[in-house]
Write a structure and sequence with these properties.
The chain has 123 residues and is α/β, with parallel strands linked by helices. It has one domain: 3-Layer(aba) Sandwich (Rossmann fold), CATH 3.40.50.2300. The chain contains 5 helices and 5 strands; from the N terminus they run E-H-E-H-E-H-E-H-E-H. The protein has helices spanning 11-23, 34-43, 60-70, 87-93, 109-122; strands at residues 3-7, 27-31, 48-52, 75-80, 101-104. A 5-stranded parallel β-sheet has the order 2-1-3-4-5, with helices on both faces. The radius of gyration is 13 Å and the shape is globular. The two termini are 13 Å apart.
Length: 123
């Protein structure tokens, strides 16, 4: 069973994405920021990480870079809702820093599952 880590500071997003992935048969864990996510991945590596871009403590781009430093083959999906902070620009730039896929919020279950399946099948 493929293991997925969802990192987002919004509990509603974390729980919703987790539930969608659980229903598809994935083993899913969550973290509320990049620092916690990195610790969890270091303790027991995941097959895929889905991370928000704009978060306190350790934001998404830093998290992506750190995860790729640990495991260059790790598949990572960056997600962001945009807003006034310009985080959609960071989302567009995230592949430069190691993201293998992106999901602009809000996204549908089909968009999530299609992106996850494509990346995990490629691994």
């Amino acid at each position: 069973m493929k293991r997925i880590l969802v990192i987002d500071d919004d509990a509603g997003v974390r729980d919703t994405v987790r539930e969608m992935l659980l229903r598809e048969g994935y083993d899913v864990d969550v973290a509320e920021n990049g620092s916690i996510g990195l610790k969890k991945h270091s303790a027991a590596p995941y097959d895929l990480v889905i991370t928000d871009i704009m978060m306190p403590v350790k934001e998404g781009i830093e998290t992506i870079i750190a995860l790729k430093d640990i495991d260059i083959t790790l598949k990572i999906i960056a997600m962001s809702g945009g807003g006034n902070s310009g985080s959609l620009d960071y989302l567009k730039m995230s592949p430069v820093f190691g993201a293998d896929g992106t999901l602009p919020k809000p996204f549908s279950k089909d968009e999530l599952i299609t992106t996850v399946t494509a990346l995990l099948h490629d691994r």
